[in-house]
């Protein structure tokens, strides 16, 4: 094969059925911010989020956390209600940034 050879390829997955949404701008600094933890209650979030909280608290003197239990599971059961209520819940709790954990 030479560098000039070209091959045609097909994507087996087909066209995407979900519209891509760009993420919101990230804050440059977490000091003075409230961070919300979201979890799907599937894989080790109860172990991982405390580690994240400790690590972030060591890096930023003035950061506050709201645990995943304030939001509900983002998978199985009531996830449709949880996700539908999420924008309002984030406003009520004055959340500045979210860490979303998806196990698996």
Explain what the structure shows.
The protein is α/β, with parallel strands linked by helices. It has a domain of 69 residues. Helices cover 28% and strands 15% of the residues. It has two helices and three strands, in the order E-H-E-H-E. The longest helix is centred in the middle third of the chain and has 15 residues. The radius of gyration is 19 Å and the shape is extended. The N and C termini lie far apart (40 Å). 9% of the residues are buried.
Gap between N and C termini, in Å? 40 Å
Broad structural category: alpha/beta
Query: Oligomeric form of this entry?
Result: single chain
Describe the main β-sheet briefly: 3 strands, parallel
Annotation field: number of helices: 2
- Rounded average pLDDT: 89
Detail the poorly predicted runs.
none
Outline type = extended
Radius of gyration computed on alpha carbons: 19 Å
Order of helices and strands: EHEHE
Number of strands: 3
Task: Classify the helix fraction into a percent range.
Answer: 25-40%
Fraction of residues in β-strands: 15-25%
Q: Which strands sit side by side, in order, in the main sheet? A: 2-1-3
